[in-house]
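Forum: Protein Structure Q&A
Topic: Joint prediction for protein chains with partners

I've read a bunch of threads here and the consensus seems to be that you should model interacting components together rather than docking separate models afterwards. I'd like to see that in practice. Below is the full input, 1249 residues plus whatever partners are listed. Could one of the regulars post the assembled result?
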Amino acid sequence: MTGSQWELPPELCCRPMAFVALTGLDVVYNAVHRAIWDAFCANRRADRVPISFKVLPGDHEYPKCRTKRTSYEWYIPKGILKTGWMNKHLNLVPALVVLFYELDWDDPQWKEKQSECATKVEIVRTSLQSRNTKVAVVLIQKKTPLPPGRGLSSERASALCHACDLSGKSLFVLPHTDHLVGYIIRLENAFYEHAQTYYYTEIRRVKSHKEFLNKTTHQLLFVRHQFKTAFFSELKQDTQNALKYYRTAYSLVHELRAHETNMLEIKTMAGFINYKICRLCFQHNTPLDAIAQFRKHIDLCKKKIGSAELAFEHSAWMSKQFQSFGELFDEAIKLGLTAIQTQNPGFYYQQAACYSQDRKQLAQQLCQVIAGVNYPSPDPLDTQSGGLDFYGQRPWRQGHQSIDPPDAEKEKTGILALQIKERDVPHSELIIALLSNAVAQFKKYKCPRMKSHLSAYNLLLDYVMCDYRTERWWGLLTAILTTALRCAYLMASIKDYIIYCMELLGRASTLKEEQKSRIEKNLIKVLSNEVPDAEPECDPSSASAARSLWNDRTALAGSNELTIEVQDYIPFIQCKAKFQSPSFHVDQPIQLQVFLRADCPHPVSFNKLAVSLSNQEYNQWCVVESSGQDSMTVLPGKTKCYNFSFVAKTEDVGKKIEMTGIELMLGSDSGRCVFLSWRGAGGDAASAHEALQASRSSRRWGRSIEAHQELDWDSLTMQHSTMIISRVPKISVQLSHQPPALTNEMYCISLTVQSQEEAVAKDVKLTAGLKPGQDANLGQTTHVTLDGSEVCDDGAPALLPDVPLGELKPGEKLERCVYVKCVSTGPRVFLFHVAYSIDTAVEGRHIVCKCHKDQTVTIETLVPFEVSVKFVSTKFEPLDRVSVDIPFLLMTDILSSSPWPLLLTSSSLQLLTVTSNTPQLQSQLQEVVLQTGERASECFCLRCPPQTNINNTVATGQYLISWRRKSSSPDSPLIQTTVTLPHVVLEMVPLYIHAELPSFGRVRESLPVRYHIENRTALVQEVEMAVEPSDAFMFSGLKQVRLRILPSSEQQVVYNYYPLMAGYQTLPQLNISLPRCPSFNTQALRRFLPQRIFVKPQGRQPDDASIAAA
Amino acid sequence: LVYIFNVFFSQNYPLYIRSVPTQNELKFHYTVHTSLDVVEEKISAVGKALGDQRELYLGLLYPTEDYKVYGYVTNSKVKFVIVVDSSNTSLRDNEIRSMFRKLHNSFTDVMCNPFHNPGDTIQSKTFDGIVSGMMVQTA
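Posted by a regular:
Agreed with the consensus. Here's the joint model:
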């Protein structure tokens, strides 16, 4: 008995289709017939009617119909359903036999052919004997058919029908023309109708038996008849009714009296009917009905185990039920049904697998007893026909329906035979296939955990362990590890065995202490190259096989070194390492700590601990090895700490040193060496989470390591890398300067370097200047030099690199001045970097250290002073335009904005176009000191020479100021600041008048005034002058005069004013007009004339003089 | 009768598992673990639809042959799962719901304990008591 015994028969699983037999076709030699046959069977798509065709010879013998029983009174049925019945109606007994015959209506030998056809029909009829199968005739004609009802054809058709004893509906004509497929489809539809009537009559026939049955003896027949009706309905394509009949049949099956002998038959039939019901439900798109039916089926059948000795059969049957339902479900999904996460075929495959596992267990139990028994002979499972008559019966007592087995001895051998067969079934393969199906389904419906769970059975253990480890389900992890350990033991796979042991001993394992201790002992045995004890729950026979495997392994020389990456597991030795500090100075020894902790019940000893670092040259310092006999030991639950220290190389300054791995050697060279290797600074799959939890709790409680004497393992953090930084410099760098800097000045920053080293600092170098990384424009506008004696030019750099300063003895002091010229204002950051090298000794090793000290300073640059310049007339009135050849004044004003006193050494004018009105220009600002906010002004009298050609605006020149800070040393360079004078607009005046008068008058004293009138044109000018009377003055002279002035000459008019009142007095107004050219604005001339004069009161002195004169 | 009470932290590792009877416990663990698939699927489905107006009770997660698995998720994604024998028909949806509510309240009390470190397994006698009480009451 193999698994295939439980397979559903194919005739049950297929979709029943009406069976139509075609006769009279010679498909081998006749091309026309071949074409007709091809048209029938090719392209049978869903839109064609469901018929299965078969070509049979004309004299084919159909299965004989047994004589119909007229009374069921004494009939006792032998079983529920005959094994051949379904096949008989699907493939052997046709619903319709179609006779093809080549005959044209106008055939010359019509009579002969007609009788031949009638004979053929008769042959078919006789071979069908008493069956209700219909017969139809198809005439294959060469000519296209005439319209019906025409003389010859209708007459001959009825004649033929009569001869063959056919109804008119059963005679067809098939013209063999171009439209063959169209005709065939029409023929098919006609055949389909005939078939349906045939099945209808069959249903009626089966139903008619019912009245002869009685409930006591014919229970089996009730089921059989219902099943048959349903099956015929299905053939008729009446699936709704079929479903109804199947449901009735199903309830009838369960009404049968069940006992041990017929249990298998009942279950088999129930399974068949259930399958049909579920199938139809899915077909009707009512999957919930299907599921409900299936649940009911399972609930009803779960307890019907049957014979206890063959209990595995029940499991096999259950498994098959689930599997076939799963397949139906899956098929329905392929046809468009949508499944959901909680209801998909996967669950059914899973259950099927479960039952297969039960089957395996039961089979193991039940078949143990028969070990060594020979297969009984003669074979009780052999039947004469080679198969069973009824579904689900025992081969050795077919047709037997009473409660007790007929022959106890036969029963025994039968069961024995079944058990022996079962023993040879490859259960595991079946289980794995089912599980794979289920896994595929769960993958489809997003059940990753379900998938893992099933994969666990499928022995994809490593993969699953990883899942459970990350999800922190320790219980499940332990269970799988235990299984895996057993496997590893049985396969004598040393590496796996060690890994699983390690993890089972670790803190994630939920095993009991004594189990752990057993595993640890085994592990120690493996490490000393001995055979470990067998795992519990192992089959004794396989355990002995494993033992010999282990013996082979241990005997094998060499290959006794193993490296295990433990990072991704949770091993029983935990390891964490850290550098004592995130950075070390190059002159300090680098300190490193490795913490080990064991979670196993017994102390663990190891022989070597090594840390590997990113720079492998340091590795030699980070190894500890057991010396001789005494090995290093870690006690359970205790933390052990190993310290390493080494000196970094000076080349590594500025670099990072990382731990790349930690290796721990268990065992010894004599036995077996196992290297546990951690990447980075240790830790394992669970430690990150533990550290997180620990940090949470310590944050709350401020639980610190000091409070607990014992080191808190979980809160121990790993420090896997450290920086090597340069030695701390022992020099001081001081800057002194007077901020802010002033634009363009040579700003002096004095730098003092003092050594506090104990040795000579060699190769001292200074880098000074603008700190890199600031605004690019600052680099252009900043100049740094060491030479303060003169103002540096634009070629000086912004940063002076590596200025050698020589050596510095201990305690020696060194001073340097750095001059900075800032062309633009704003803040700047300056960097002063002093580097040197020195010899030192660290732990007895001499190294040359490079040290450096940086000092930065931010300096603001300000404008030292503001200069304003303006042109005014000689009367100090602001000028908007300058008249040619008339003197005017230039006023300059310097306002100091520097916080430090400024010394203005001199100033000068560089004139263009205009010239000085005075013989030599002399600066009025010689050695003037300006405090903050003070002003210094100058005034120059200038004149524009007459020959200047007048083109609107002209440049007038520059104003130069030389200055320095007052506090700076006298020999420091002077800074020249240049101010460009404003441009002026020039104009010509035709007439110029100016007065010549004393600077003041005195009451009642004569005040002579001379007016000069100049003609600046090349024409003779006539001028009328008049003096208006004034209250303050009496005057003598021409009151009104008319003058004529020649080109480029002048006339003088003299008046004698006599002041009458003291104080500022308005002079008598002089009115000038040019009668020849009245358009000339004489008002413009007035601005050249003084308006007022100060008149002093009459003094006493003249009196004294007069007294003296008297 | 079988009852299993579970509490999971948001990362899906168990904070508390209790089952009666204790034999065959491993199988229950698997059942509960696999039920988390459905829980996650349900949460993600709901999350899309209706932000925080979420019903905490997830209802029957899936019926297996022998057990019914019910789920409940708090707003902080702590999951509760109860597994009962499917033959036990006396437990209706409402009873399960109130059991979950009680469990949630008790869990909140545990979390309020200043000495409890969230994420650690629950070792509270009160919580144990409440769970045992429910087991007795429904048995």
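Residues 49 and 112 of chain B are 31 Å apart (CA to CA).
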